[in-house]
Write a structure and sequence with these properties.
The chain is built from no helices and 18 strands. By secondary structure, the chain is an all-beta fold.
Amino acid sequence: MARANADPSIAIEDQVLGDDITIWTRRNLSLGRANFEVSVPPETSLAIKNVIGKIELQNITGHVSVNSFDSDVHLVGIDSPSVDVRVTSGDIFFDGALHEGGSYNLQSMRGDLDVTLPSASPFNLNARALSENINLGSFLNNLTGSSRGPKGVSGTHLRGGPRLTLTAYAGRILLHKK
């Protein structure tokens, strides 16, 4: 199910090809706003491309890919085998689980990364914050084989597992335990 609420200057278009559903907006020269609410089965894989606006995903178990120019991205209750979020400007909030063999890449050019994981989650970490700080909270005490440089931290938590890559070019990286 998809619902959209848009200003009169915005035209909403959609296309269905097999299992892929594409929804996009077209606008005239005046500014306008469109809000979407999309409900899908939890196991659905999502690929979202957005220019401006907040993105919220909840309770998704399929693959997640988000690419946006100016968006805050909130991923809550995520239990996905892979997550790839790339934002030019905006904060990324992730609260979820990591799967063995999975890949989790969160990147913001101008924004913070705030990540919450179960304390028993094994992972291989590569975190880079080029202009701000990295706060690994209590995960720092259990990080083995770690290397720390002025701009990054890498290491293994609980014998390793999924790849967790966190990159903030102009923002902080915060890692919390559930």
